[in-house]
Amino acid sequence: MLGKQLELWTVAQNLVRVVLPNHSLLTGKPEQTESVTLWETLEFLDAPCCDACGFPFEFDVGENVLCGRCEGKRPAFDRARSAIRYTEQSRKLVLDFKHGGRTDGLEFFAAQMHRAGRDLLHDAHILMPVPLHKKRLRQRKFNQAALLARALSKLSGLPYETNTILRAKNTPTQGGQSYLGRKRNVSGAFVIPEDKRKLIGNARIVLIDDVQTTGSTLEACAKVLKKYGAQQVDSLSLMRVVRPEPV
Hints:
Elements: H1 2-19, H2 38-41, H3 68-72, E1 79-85, H4 88-98, H5 106-116, H6 118-123, E2 126-129, H7 134-140, H8 144-156, E3 166-167, H9 179-186, E4 190-191, H10 197-200, E5 204-212, H11 216-227, E6 232-240
Parallel strand pairs: 1-6, 2-5, 5-6
Antiparallel strand pairs: 3-4
Helix pairs in contact: 5-8
């Protein structure tokens, strides 16, 4: 099903390119007139960072160091990493992908996630995209996290599973909600079908998502996966909202 969806999107995009010039994912201008490159506008994330949530540090403070928030309480997931900082420039990139159907950036996205999550992928058994509720999937036509997982699977050689963790509750969108609101919104939202639970036992799983904001969705997914015996649950997202660390 996922392969068919991606194939249809690719065919449609190729048809558009026949009659229209290629346009930048960032600005919408024709690529041949684009003066600002991705490399000049995007903020790529890498070490040093919090060993747990991936919060970026300004300078190297050593290995296995936690940020203040994770020192107070570690998240349910083991490690989270992201490839690109969520800014005004990158926001358009991910929204065009998520809501505008621009899948022509998938190879670039996957390559950057592979770079940022190399340690997680090295340790993993399987990739699992954060699921959409079936109603929202029908509206959007595809799950952007599943497309990222598929592209990463090709790069890493790791298998990916799209129907192991399901979204049982059609929760309101997380956008615009507070940290506590997001946490309440996804509480109990995810389930593992009985026939998939054996796959979870002792597995080292990397959850795949497009944007990490507060980590509430990732926490909810990690909790249900660990409930059924996952040995380790890491998270790898395309982008991350970086807020000032609490003092």
